């Protein structure tokens, strides 16, 4: 049970969305989230999105549910995995979404007490192609009781493992910091950009994902649109049953994007 009032937990909440892709492809699919965010490079073939607003800041959904829904929506719409790191006054954790597979996650209480399932770490390592011996050993260490480790240090331990996979978060983007602090840091980074509002349409010169976007209407775009609709409907229904705004929003986004792509593809047929 939470030891803080909902407002206090929301004020302390923050998140990072780590995408295993270059900033260009990430910028192409980020408008799916319906919220503009700063975007920056985070190492070789990694990018980071920094949510600044978020429903959790206005007394809505808990930060973990929102980030799980966002990570799922991004991963289904793109061919690379998305790792969501989140924290509030009571807990911290991660969710890894990859394609159409069920997301995997783990969390710790504020004092660092593990409350996830050990199997999650093994799945996490396998899906990211991490070393099954050295990296997995480090990850499993995060699931053991350690009186000297709080939730923030657990997230830093997770990121330390990912540095061997090429992740290099820019200085100042520290798990545990407030959303305002993270936003101020990322906006000042060289090369940082802001994702576009929903409805933005990149050209083929801007991203290799453009042929799969709904406004193109090609075979790849139509196939992706149908798949998004097929996944979005049960996802939204599951979110409604669980009264989870994050999952419901993710399902609705996928259905809307898929419906748009299907309609546009049909309109372009001779």
Shape designation: globular
Q: Extract low-pLDDT stretches.
A: 1-6, 209-220, 262-270
Number of strands: 7
Radius of gyration using CA atoms only: 18 Å
Distance between the termini: 59 Å
Strand percent estimate: 5-15%
What's the domain count? 2
Q: What is the average of the pLDDT values?
A: 79
The structural class is: alpha+beta
Order of strands in the sheet with most strands: 6-5-4-1-3-2-7
Per DSSP, the total helix count is 9
Helix content: 40-55%
The string of secondary-structure elements, in order, is: HEHEEHEEEHHHHEHH
| Largest sheet, strands/sense/barrel | 7 strands, antiparallel
Report on this model:
A hairpin with a 3-residue loop joins strand 4 and strand 5. The chain has nine helices and seven strands, in the order αβαββαβββααααβαα. It is α+β, with helices and mostly antiparallel strands. 41% of the residues lie in helices and 13% in strands. The chain folds into two domains: 6-194, no CATH class; 211-267. The protein has a seven-stranded antiparallel sheet with strand order 6-5-4-1-3-2-7, sandwiched between helices.
């Amino acid at each position: 049970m939470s030891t803080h009032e909902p407002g206090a937990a929301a004020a302390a909440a923050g998140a990072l969305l780590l995408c295993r892709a270059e900033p260009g492809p990430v910028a192409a699919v980020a408008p799916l989230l319906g919220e503009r965010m700063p975007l920056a490079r985070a190492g070789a073939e990694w990018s980071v999105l920094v949510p600044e607003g978020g429903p959790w800041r206005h007394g809505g959904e808990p930060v973990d549910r929102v980030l799980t829904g966002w990570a799922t929506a991004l991963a289904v719409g793109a061919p690379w995995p998305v790792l969501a790191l989140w924290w509030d006054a009571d807990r911290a954790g991660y969710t890894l979404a990859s394609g159409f597979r069920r997301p995997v996650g783990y969390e710790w209480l504020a004092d660092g007490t593990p409350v996830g399932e050990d199997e999650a770490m093994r799945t996490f390592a396998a899906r990211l192609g991490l070393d099954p011996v050295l990296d997995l050993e480090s990850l499993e260490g995060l699931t053991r009781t350690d009186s000297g480790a709080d939730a923030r240090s657990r997230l830093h331990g997770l990121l330390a493992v990912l540095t061997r996979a090429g992740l290099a978060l820019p200085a100042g983007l520290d798990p545990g910091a407030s959303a305002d602090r993270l936003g101020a840091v990322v906006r000042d980074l060289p090369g940082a950009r802001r994702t576009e509002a929903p409805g933005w349409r990149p050209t083929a010169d801007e991203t290799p994902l453009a042929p799969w976007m709904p406004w193109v209407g090609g075979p790849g775009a139509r196939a992706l649109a149908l798949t998004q609709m097929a996944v979005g409907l049960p996802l939204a229904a599951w979110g409604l049953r669980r009264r989870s705004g994050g999952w419901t929003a993710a399902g609705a986004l996928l259905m809307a994007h898929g419906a748009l792509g299907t309609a546009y593809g049909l309109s372009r047929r001779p």
